[in-house]
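Consider this one:
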Amino acid sequence: MTEAAEPKRGRSRDGGSRRPLRYQRVYDLVVSLIEDQGLREGDQLPSTAELAEMAEVSVISVRRALDELAHSGKIVRHQGVGIFVAPQRLVSEPSRPGALLETLKGQRDEIELDTELVSLVVGLPNSKHAAALGIDAGEPVWEICRLRRMGRAPKVLEKAVLPLSLVPSLDEGRLAAGESLYGFLSERYGFTDDFVEQVFEVDQPNSLEREHLQLTAKDYVVRIRGVSVDATGKAFDSFQQTYPAREFLFYVSRATGRRLMEPDHSGSWSVRPFGSPASPASSD
Protein backbone atom coordinates (compact mmCIF):
# COMPACT_ATOMS: atom_id res chain seq x y z
CA MET A 1 0.00 0.00 0.00
CA THR A 2 1.36 3.43 -0.89
CA GLU A 3 0.91 6.09 1.72
CA ALA A 4 -0.16 9.58 0.68
CA ALA A 5 2.50 12.24 0.80
CA GLU A 6 2.84 13.79 4.21
CA PRO A 7 1.88 17.44 4.65
CA LYS A 8 4.67 19.96 4.71
CA ARG A 9 5.90 21.39 7.95
CA GLY A 10 3.80 24.31 9.05
CA ARG A 11 3.06 26.52 11.98
CA SER A 12 0.15 26.36 14.35
CA ARG A 13 -2.11 29.36 14.86
CA ASP A 14 -0.22 30.34 17.99
CA GLY A 15 3.05 30.47 16.03
CA GLY A 16 4.50 27.15 17.20
CA SER A 17 5.90 24.59 14.79
CA ARG A 18 4.25 21.21 14.31
CA ARG A 19 5.36 17.87 12.88
CA PRO A 20 3.34 16.10 10.18
CA LEU A 21 0.66 13.90 11.75
CA ARG A 22 2.04 10.45 10.82
CA TYR A 23 5.58 11.49 11.63
CA GLN A 24 4.44 12.82 15.02
CA ARG A 25 2.61 9.55 15.72
CA VAL A 26 5.81 7.52 15.42
CA TYR A 27 7.89 10.06 17.33
CA ASP A 28 5.43 10.08 20.25
CA LEU A 29 5.16 6.28 20.17
CA VAL A 30 8.90 5.79 20.62
CA VAL A 31 9.09 8.40 23.39
CA SER A 32 6.18 6.67 25.17
CA LEU A 33 7.81 3.25 24.84
CA ILE A 34 10.98 4.56 26.47
CA GLU A 35 9.14 6.33 29.29
CA ASP A 36 6.33 3.84 29.98
CA GLN A 37 8.55 0.75 29.91
CA GLY A 38 11.36 2.42 31.85
CA LEU A 39 13.87 1.62 29.11
CA ARG A 40 17.48 2.53 29.78
CA GLU A 41 20.62 3.24 27.82
CA GLY A 42 21.35 0.42 25.37
CA ASP A 43 17.89 -1.21 25.56
CA GLN A 44 16.64 -2.25 22.13
CA LEU A 45 13.53 -0.73 20.58
CA PRO A 46 11.19 -2.31 18.00
CA SER A 47 12.44 -2.48 14.42
CA THR A 48 11.44 -0.04 11.71
CA ALA A 49 8.89 -2.52 10.33
CA GLU A 50 7.46 -3.20 13.81
CA LEU A 51 7.10 0.52 14.53
CA ALA A 52 5.37 1.02 11.19
CA GLU A 53 2.86 -1.68 12.10
CA MET A 54 2.37 -0.39 15.65
CA ALA A 55 1.77 3.20 14.50
CA GLU A 56 -0.10 2.17 11.34
CA VAL A 57 2.07 4.31 9.09
CA SER A 58 4.53 3.72 6.27
CA VAL A 59 8.21 2.85 6.70
CA ILE A 60 8.98 6.28 5.20
CA SER A 61 7.21 7.98 8.11
CA VAL A 62 9.06 5.80 10.61
CA ARG A 63 12.42 6.65 9.08
CA ARG A 64 11.69 10.36 9.25
CA ALA A 65 10.69 10.05 12.89
CA LEU A 66 13.80 8.01 13.69
CA ASP A 67 15.97 10.66 12.05
CA GLU A 68 14.46 13.27 14.35
CA LEU A 69 14.77 11.03 17.43
CA ALA A 70 18.43 10.37 16.65
CA HIS A 71 19.11 14.05 16.04
CA SER A 72 17.54 14.97 19.39
CA GLY A 73 19.68 12.39 21.18
CA LYS A 74 16.90 10.01 22.23
CA ILE A 75 17.95 6.97 20.19
CA VAL A 76 20.96 5.53 18.37
CA ARG A 77 20.84 3.29 15.31
CA HIS A 78 23.38 0.63 14.39
CA GLN A 79 23.28 -0.53 10.80
CA GLY A 80 22.12 -4.12 10.55
CA VAL A 81 21.75 -4.44 14.34
CA GLY A 82 18.82 -2.34 15.49
CA ILE A 83 17.51 0.76 17.24
CA PHE A 84 18.55 1.44 20.84
CA VAL A 85 17.90 3.93 23.62
CA ALA A 86 20.65 6.54 23.54
CA PRO A 87 23.06 7.11 26.43
CA GLN A 88 21.64 9.36 29.12
CA ARG A 89 22.79 12.97 29.00
CA LEU A 90 25.23 14.18 31.61
CA VAL A 91 24.03 16.99 33.84
CA SER A 92 26.42 19.87 34.39
CA GLU A 93 26.25 22.67 36.93
CA PRO A 94 28.59 25.13 35.22
CA SER A 95 27.97 27.83 37.83
CA ARG A 96 29.87 25.74 40.36
CA PRO A 97 33.60 26.60 40.38
CA GLY A 98 36.36 24.04 40.79
CA ALA A 99 37.32 20.80 39.09
CA LEU A 100 35.27 19.83 36.04
CA LEU A 101 34.24 16.53 37.64
CA GLU A 102 32.67 18.44 40.53
CA THR A 103 30.28 20.13 38.10
CA LEU A 104 29.02 16.87 36.55
CA LYS A 105 26.21 14.75 37.89
CA GLY A 106 24.65 11.58 36.53
CA GLN A 107 23.01 8.25 37.23
CA ARG A 108 26.36 6.52 37.54
CA ASP A 109 28.01 6.40 40.94
CA GLU A 110 31.26 7.64 39.40
CA ILE A 111 32.05 9.62 36.28
CA GLU A 112 35.58 9.05 35.02
CA LEU A 113 37.14 11.39 32.50
CA ASP A 114 40.43 10.94 30.68
CA THR A 115 42.37 14.05 29.78
CA GLU A 116 44.46 15.02 26.75
CA LEU A 117 46.55 18.18 26.96
CA VAL A 118 45.95 19.57 23.46
CA SER A 119 48.20 22.61 23.83
CA LEU A 120 49.99 24.77 26.39
CA VAL A 121 51.31 28.03 24.93
CA VAL A 122 52.29 31.58 25.85
CA GLY A 123 50.88 34.34 23.67
CA LEU A 124 49.03 37.65 23.64
CA PRO A 125 45.35 37.94 24.63
CA ASN A 126 42.72 39.18 22.23
CA SER A 127 40.58 42.12 23.29
CA LYS A 128 37.93 39.94 24.95
CA HIS A 129 40.41 38.12 27.19
CA ALA A 130 42.24 41.36 28.02
CA ALA A 131 38.98 43.08 29.01
CA ALA A 132 37.79 40.11 31.07
CA LEU A 133 41.11 39.84 32.92
CA GLY A 134 41.61 43.59 33.29
CA ILE A 135 45.04 43.53 31.62
CA ASP A 136 46.74 45.28 28.74
CA ALA A 137 46.48 43.63 25.32
CA GLY A 138 50.28 43.44 25.18
CA GLU A 139 50.60 41.53 28.45
CA PRO A 140 51.54 37.84 27.86
CA VAL A 141 49.19 35.07 28.95
CA TRP A 142 49.08 31.30 29.18
CA GLU A 143 46.55 29.46 27.03
CA ILE A 144 45.75 25.91 28.16
CA CYS A 145 43.60 23.69 25.94
CA ARG A 146 42.48 20.29 27.24
CA LEU A 147 40.14 17.63 25.87
CA ARG A 148 38.10 15.49 28.29
CA ARG A 149 36.91 12.03 27.27
CA MET A 150 34.60 9.48 28.82
CA GLY A 151 35.91 6.16 27.59
CA ARG A 152 36.73 6.87 23.96
CA ALA A 153 34.03 9.50 23.50
CA PRO A 154 35.16 13.16 23.64
CA LYS A 155 32.92 15.17 25.95
CA VAL A 156 34.38 18.58 26.78
CA LEU A 157 36.94 20.87 25.14
CA GLU A 158 38.38 23.34 27.64
CA LYS A 159 40.41 26.52 27.22
CA ALA A 160 41.82 28.64 30.04
CA VAL A 161 43.74 31.91 29.70
CA LEU A 162 45.87 33.11 32.65
CA PRO A 163 48.07 36.23 32.92
CA LEU A 164 51.77 35.43 33.34
CA SER A 165 51.99 38.33 35.78
CA LEU A 166 49.73 36.36 38.15
CA VAL A 167 50.69 32.80 37.17
CA PRO A 168 54.39 32.78 36.19
CA SER A 169 54.63 28.98 35.90
CA LEU A 170 52.39 25.94 35.38
CA ASP A 171 52.85 22.23 36.00
CA GLU A 172 52.43 20.60 32.58
CA GLY A 173 52.48 17.09 34.05
CA ARG A 174 49.60 17.78 36.41
CA LEU A 175 47.57 19.43 33.67
CA ALA A 176 48.18 16.50 31.30
CA ALA A 177 47.13 14.09 34.06
CA GLY A 178 43.74 15.81 34.28
CA GLU A 179 44.20 17.43 37.67
CA SER A 180 42.12 20.48 38.52
CA LEU A 181 43.62 23.74 37.28
CA TYR A 182 41.77 25.51 40.08
CA GLY A 183 43.30 23.19 42.66
CA PHE A 184 46.77 23.96 41.31
CA LEU A 185 46.15 27.72 41.29
CA SER A 186 44.88 27.61 44.86
CA GLU A 187 47.79 25.49 46.07
CA ARG A 188 50.58 27.32 44.24
CA TYR A 189 49.36 30.92 44.09
CA GLY A 190 46.50 31.18 46.57
CA PHE A 191 43.85 31.97 43.94
CA THR A 192 40.37 30.67 44.73
CA ASP A 193 37.02 31.52 43.13
CA ASP A 194 35.04 34.07 45.05
CA PHE A 195 32.62 34.23 42.16
CA VAL A 196 32.44 33.17 38.52
CA GLU A 197 30.57 35.06 35.82
CA GLN A 198 29.60 33.22 32.65
CA VAL A 199 27.98 33.63 29.24
CA PHE A 200 26.19 30.70 27.53
CA GLU A 201 26.15 30.36 23.75
CA VAL A 202 24.57 27.72 21.49
CA ASP A 203 26.26 27.58 18.11
CA GLN A 204 27.60 25.29 15.41
CA PRO A 205 31.15 24.07 16.12
CA ASN A 206 34.24 25.73 14.72
CA SER A 207 37.04 23.73 13.11
CA LEU A 208 38.90 23.03 16.37
CA GLU A 209 35.72 21.84 18.07
CA ARG A 210 34.73 19.66 15.13
CA GLU A 211 38.14 18.02 15.11
CA HIS A 212 38.46 17.27 18.81
CA LEU A 213 34.80 16.63 19.71
CA GLN A 214 34.25 14.56 16.54
CA LEU A 215 31.34 16.66 15.33
CA THR A 216 30.05 17.74 11.94
CA ALA A 217 29.23 21.24 10.78
CA LYS A 218 25.53 20.40 11.23
CA ASP A 219 25.90 19.58 14.93
CA TYR A 220 25.50 22.09 17.76
CA VAL A 221 27.64 22.89 20.77
CA VAL A 222 27.11 24.78 24.01
CA ARG A 223 29.97 27.16 24.80
CA ILE A 224 30.36 28.54 28.30
CA ARG A 225 32.70 31.52 28.49
CA GLY A 226 33.55 33.14 31.76
CA VAL A 227 35.96 34.72 34.17
CA SER A 228 37.07 33.63 37.67
CA VAL A 229 37.55 36.32 40.31
CA ASP A 230 39.17 35.99 43.74
CA ALA A 231 38.05 37.55 47.02
CA THR A 232 40.04 40.75 46.35
CA GLY A 233 38.20 41.29 43.05
CA LYS A 234 41.15 40.23 40.90
CA ALA A 235 40.27 38.29 37.72
CA PHE A 236 42.80 35.49 37.28
CA ASP A 237 41.24 33.12 34.71
CA SER A 238 39.33 33.69 31.46
CA PHE A 239 37.93 30.37 30.28
CA GLN A 240 35.81 28.59 27.71
CA GLN A 241 34.24 25.13 27.89
CA THR A 242 32.62 23.57 24.81
CA TYR A 243 30.12 20.71 25.13
CA PRO A 244 28.29 18.67 22.46
CA ALA A 245 24.81 20.11 22.85
CA ARG A 246 22.92 16.81 22.57
CA GLU A 247 24.91 15.09 25.30
CA PHE A 248 24.47 17.52 28.21
CA LEU A 249 21.82 19.23 30.29
CA PHE A 250 22.75 22.40 32.16
CA TYR A 251 21.38 24.05 35.27
CA VAL A 252 22.37 27.12 37.24
CA SER A 253 22.02 27.22 40.99
CA ARG A 254 23.17 30.74 41.75
CA ALA A 255 23.55 34.13 40.06
CA THR A 256 25.41 37.39 40.50
CA GLY A 257 24.52 40.95 39.66
CA ARG A 258 27.99 41.86 38.41
CA ARG A 259 28.65 42.21 34.69
CA LEU A 260 32.25 41.48 33.75
CA MET A 261 31.34 39.35 30.74
CA GLU A 262 29.06 40.80 28.07
CA PRO A 263 27.47 38.55 25.41
CA ASP A 264 29.47 38.90 22.20
CA HIS A 265 28.78 36.98 18.99
CA SER A 266 31.57 38.47 16.90
CA GLY A 267 35.21 37.59 16.43
CA SER A 268 37.32 34.75 17.75
CA TRP A 269 38.14 33.55 21.23
CA SER A 270 41.83 32.74 20.93
CA VAL A 271 45.31 33.84 21.91
CA ARG A 272 47.51 35.51 19.28
CA PRO A 273 51.04 34.04 19.17
CA PHE A 274 53.96 36.42 19.55
CA GLY A 275 54.84 38.11 16.27
CA SER A 276 51.54 37.37 14.57
CA PRO A 277 49.29 40.06 12.97
CA ALA A 278 46.99 42.01 15.24
CA SER A 279 43.84 40.41 13.78
CA PRO A 280 43.76 36.67 14.60
CA ALA A 281 42.92 34.55 11.56
CA SER A 282 41.72 31.64 13.65
CA SER A 283 38.08 31.23 14.68
CA ASP A 284 38.80 28.83 17.54
Q: What stands out?
A: The mean pLDDT is 80. Helices lie at 21-36, 48-55, 59-71, 100-103, 127-133, 172-176, 181-189, 207-213.
